[in-house]
Each structure stands twice: as structure tokens, then as C-alpha cells.
Fold this sequence. Notes:
Helix 2 crosses helix 7 (110-120). The chain has one domain (5-312). 76% of the residues lie in helices and 0% in strands. With 316 residues, the protein is an all-alpha fold. The chain is built from 15 helices and no strands. The N and C termini lie far apart (46 Å). It is globular, with a radius of gyration of 20 Å. The mean pLDDT is 83.
Amino acid sequence: IFPWQPLQDLIANDYGIITLGIRYATAIVLPIVATFFLMFSLLEDSGYLPRLSLMLDRVFKSIGLSGRSVIPIVLGFGCDTMATMVTRTLETRRERLIAIFLLSLAIPCAAQWGLIVGLLSQKPTALIAWAVFLIAIFLGMGFLTSKIIPGKPAGFYMEIPPLRIPKFRNIIIKTWVRMKWYFYEILPLFIWASVFIWFGKLTGLFDILIRGLEPISLALGLPKEAAPVFLYGFFRRDYGAAGLFDMQQQGIFNGNQLFIAAIVLTLFLPCIAQLQMMFKEQGKLITVLMTSFIFPFAFLVGYCTNLALNTLGVSF
């Protein structure tokens, strides 16, 4: 249909709008996100979320947060961009900084963790180890950050509503509103990411960046074919996870490599949409400082994990 090869690459082929943009956003990502928002709406309408906030208040106090932060953190498992916006409801700037940092570092969005859980579910030990890693990094980095940023957690008081049976109509409306927001916001980003990747391939910039990431992939014990996945992850976290899914379907990774790639992608840079929201909420300096730490930290954790697995002779 399209005689000009670059135009064919833009529309279809490996990095086209249809292949990477629309297919990833609708066929792979959308069902997972819809399931999360449905469950979140169910918890919200039942009145359970305030109870969860009170139960976790003491734990969150140890990492510089309060029970009020539970809502954006839980929401981050659906969409980190939306959760970053919700942090404006937190009382102190210190609490907002810590929450945004932890959302950027250790909270995977619904599409990302859904894909990773699906991939690692074939290896239950690796799945459990991945979850333990995330919890340990979330609590450990939260504790360290709370010691670096001066101040104390804000007081937390909340009126507990009675538990009630969720209303089907309320759940559907809340899920629909969130899904409509997600679809309108995210699908254009997927398409733009496809255009950026196409432009990078057309100009050769994409190949240069991939070659720069290949030594890092090899240092992590991953095949060099994994390098594009990390580049995808910069445009969208779930974009990278979807790329990981495709590579696993092709049988490129063994168990250990899949585990390491899952950890690095989970801890990787926030997606472009979240970076934009971070910039809007906290400014350029804070955004640059956070991303400057997260980028090398993710690869360092992956490198240490690979080293530990090889030293101990552990395989998944």
C-alpha cells in the first residue's frame, strides 16, 4: 500500500505505529490496566482504602510518609503518572518528594507489573524473589530518603467510613472514567513513542543509542538484543515490558536473564508522561536529581543481582 520504505516503517513493520503503538497500547497493555482500575474501584467503593491507610500508617512512618500516602502509592500500581499528580493531596513537601521518588523508582504501573508477573509466573521462585526485591528496595530507599530529607512525617487522622457492599454502577462509572483518562492520555504517547523510534531509526540515532546500551546489557548478563527494551522503557515503562514480553516469546532469555531484566525495567527511569508530571509538580531541579540517581541505580542493582546469582550458582 505504501511504496516508500520509510513510510512503511512508520506505519507498520517492527517499529511502526500499528505494531508498537496501537498493538502494545490496546492488545497488551489495555486489558491489564482495565483489570487494575476495576479492582481499585471495587476497593474504593467498599470503603476499604481508608482502613488500609490506617493499617499501613506505622510502616509508612518509618520511611517518612504517613497513611495518607497509601492512596497515591496504591494508585501508582495502576498508573504512576496519575499517582504523581495525586501526591499534591499530601500535606508537606517532604512527604510529596519521598512519595514521588518511590513512585518513580520502585512502583511499577499496572501494565508493567502485569506483564512481568505473567512472564515470571512460569517460574514461581523468580516471581517471589522479584516481589521481595521490590519491597526491600521500596522500604530501604524510603528509609534512607527520609533520613536525607529533613523533617518529620505529617500527622495522620482519618474518619473511617463503614464498610459497604460496592454498587455495580459506581464501580463501572469509576472504572470507565479512569480508563477513558488512561486511554486518551496514553494511546497518543504510545503513538508518539513509535514516531520517535521511527525517527531515531531513520536518522541512525536509535542505532547509536542501542549500541551504547549493548555493553551495559552484556555487563548485566543479558544478550545484547535486550538493549532496545531499555530504550523502549524510557518512552513508556510498559512499552519496555511489552518488548520484554515479545523477546521472551521468541525464547531469547533464560530464567536468570528474564529475572534480571524484570528487576532493571521495574527500577528504570520514569516514562516520559511521568517525567512531565514530575516536572510540573516539583520543578526541573528535583526531576533531574531523581532521574540522575534512578538511571545508574537500576543498572547497578541488575549488575549486583547477576553477580550474586553467578557467585551463588542460583538459577531460575
